[in-house]
Amino acid sequence: TSDGKGHMSPEVYYDGPYGMGTLDLDTVEAGDGILLVAGGIGVTPVAALLEHLHDRVLQTGRPLTTNRVRVVWAVRSWSLVKAFASTWEKMAASGQVKTWLDFCVHCTRGAKSNEGDERTVLTSSKADVAGDEEPSWPFMELGEKRPDMQKTVHQALQRGAPGAKEGTVERLHVFVCGPSTMANAVERACGAELEAVEAGQRLQGCDPTNAIPQILLHKEAFGL
Q1: Average of per-residue pLDDT values in the chain
Q2: HSE-CB of 210 using CA atoms within 13 angstroms
Q3: What is the Cα–Cα distance from 133 to 140, expressed in whole angstroms?
Q4: Which of 14, 174, 207, 218 is least surrounded by Cβ atoms within 10 Å, i.e. has the fewest?
Q5: Which residues pair with 70 in a beta bridge?
Q6: Which stretches of the chain are assigned E, i.e. beta strand?
C-alpha cells in the first residue's frame, strides 16, 4: 500500500491462533487431577490458568476438581516470583487458595564454589533469596532442592480430596512449560509412573487395563 507520498508499505496478514494453547479446563471432570509444572518464565501460562481457576472458585463457591491442583515452579531467582506479585496477591487475598492448591517454588541461584567455578546452589529458605524484601504469600512453599519429576507426578496421581477413596485418580491433566530438559523430564516421568502403576497392579493380581490412570500431557518447551 502507498502512503500517498510514493512510499510503499508492506501489507501484513495474520490469523489464528487455533486450538488450545494451554490446558483445556473444559475437559476437566470432577475427580480429575491437575498438575502444572513451570520453569522460569514458563510460569506465564500457568499463572493465567491459576487466575482462571481462582476466579471460578470464587464464582461457584467450589473447586473445579475434587482433587487438589498441584503446581511446581523452578526459578533461578526469587525476583521472578515477585514479578508476578499482583497475581499471587489477588489469590492470597481470597483466603481460599489453600483449600484446593498445593504450590511449591524451587528456587536456585548461581554462586561461586571454593574452587572458583560457577555452579548452581540450592537455597534452603525464602530468606536466602529474598532477604529483607521477602514477600508473604502463605499458600506458597519453598522446595529445598530441584523437583523430582517422577515423585511429583506420583503425588499428583494420588487422590487428595478430603473424604475421597484411596488410590490414584482416573485421569491426570499435566501441563508443563519450561526448558526442553524440564519438559522432557516430565514426559519421561509420566511414562515411568504409568509403568510403575501397571507393574504394581500385576503384582497384586489385578487386571491393569482396568486400573491404570490416564495421563493427558500438554508440553511446551523452549531452549535456553
Answers
A1: 76
A2: 3
A3: 16
A4: 14
A5: 35, 102
A6: 33-39, 69-75, 101-112, 118-122, 140-143, 171-179, 214-222
Q: How far is CA 108 from CA 19, 83, 87, 97, 215, in A?
A: 34, 16, 22, 25, 29
- Could you give the CA distance from residue 35 to residue 24 in angstroms, rounded to a whole number? 13
Q: What is the pLDDT of residues 156-187, one digit of tens each?
A: 988 654 444 556 788 889 999 999 999 999 99
To the nearest 10°, report the CA torsion of 125, 126, 129, 135.
-170
3 state DSSP class of 118: strand
Average pLDDT over residues 99-109: 86
Residue 191 is which amino acid? G
Residues contacting 164, CB < 8 A, separation 6+: 31, 66, 67
* Distance between CA atoms of residues 23 and 43, nearest Å: 13
